[in-house]
Design brief:
By secondary structure, this protein is mainly alpha-helical. It has helices at 18-25, 30-46, 48-68, 74-80, 86-98, 100-114, 138-149, 154-165, 202-224, 234-255, 259-295; strands spanning 5-7, 13-15, 170-171, 183-184, 194-195. It binds zinc ion.
């Protein structure tokens, strides 16, 4: 995807990419946040009908295969492997919906602190504390992460440190043609590879700790199990990663000096909470409803989605 350019803080034309998008969305400057947001979604919008027909075909296939295999729904078919029931899935969505007031009050606090009359989607990643501009080199991020995770044992810390520093576990920086986001990958018999798009922000340090959690989980699971028993289910996967983020946050909260720095880290924790609990569940709800509509014969058009 080519997203074109926007004008940055210094008046320079800069290229918008998957990796830089989030950096601009976390800008203190609302004009830059809005420009990046508009540009990205305008580009996606040009392909709206293509995405919708791809999605329609994909979901119809899921619905058909579930029917052929005798499942009640594509939802039941999807969660079957993880030994999760549709009731658990639906209960998660229901519980999150019943507690949206917590999310709304967080957003309201954020809106107030940012001094805005209304909070737009492009404002929700803006920093709460504008005065903090600290950047972290990848080497610093590695040391901070390993020190925070030392509580999990010397073996854990040493394995991770060696993997990152000498083992070639991590593809660190954004690159042309490289996908955005961050992932932990690999398979039985390989290193637990980590894909990052590191841009030196506090959020990137937390992302490293998060992916390190997945990778150490995989590493230990593969090391201690036969291949057929070494995979873990998606339902438990985020435990290892989010625990690492919380360990990092607690360590940093103990060590930073100023109230602003503390606030910045607490905001990072709130963002993790928002993303992991609220946002992911909203994805699940969207997906569930999309599958239900498709199963009842509605074509998934761009407008419907
Ligand atoms: Zn994760």
């Amino acid at each position: 995807m080519r997203f074109g350019t926007i004008i940055d803080e210094d008046g320079k034309k800069v290229r918008l990419t998957d990796a830089t998008y989030i950096v601009y969305l976390m800008s203190k400057n609302r004009r830059i946040r809005r420009a990046a947001f508009k540009k990205l979604y305008e580009t996606y919008d040009q392909f709206g009908n293509t995405f919708a027909s791809l999605m329609d075909a994909y979901v119809r296939e899921k619905v058909s295969i579930a029917k052929v295999r005798g499942f009640e729904s594509s939802l039941q078919a999807s969660v079957f492997e993880d030994e999760v029931t549709p009731e658990i899935y639906n209960n998660l969505i229901k519980t999150v919906n019943e507690n949206l007031d917590v999310l709304y009050s967080y957003y309201d606090l954020k809106r107030e602190m940012l001094g805005l009359s209304a909070l737009h989607l492009y404002d929700i990643y803006a920093p709460l504390v504008g005065s903090i501009d600290k950047e972290y080199t990848f080497e610093e991020a590695t040391d901070i992460t390993i020190n925070a995770l030392r509580i999990l044992g010397d073996d854990y810390a040493a394995t991770l440190e060696d993997g990152i520093k000498n083992g070639g576990w991590v593809d660190v920086y954004p690159n042309r043609g490289k996908r955005g986001g961050a992932y932990s990958s690999g398979c039985y018999g390989t290193k637990p590879y980590i894909l990052l798009n590191y841009t030196s922000q506090l959020d990137d340090v937390f992302t490293l700790a998060h992916e390190a959690g997945h990778s150490m989980h995989s590493y230990n699971s593969r090391k201690n199990n036969e291949p057929q028993n070494s995979e873990y289910t998606i339902f438990v996967a985020e435990v290892a990663s989010t625990v690492n983020e919380l360990l990092l946050a607690r360590k940093m909260l103990r060590e930073v000096q100023s109230d602003d720095e503390k606030l910045n880290i607490l905001n990072q924790v709130m963002e993790t909470y928002k993303g992991t609990l609220y946002r992911q569940t909203m994805f699940a709800e969207f997906e569930r409803d999309m599958h239900e509509m498709s199963a009842s014969g509605h074509p998934l058009t761009k407008e419907l989605l």
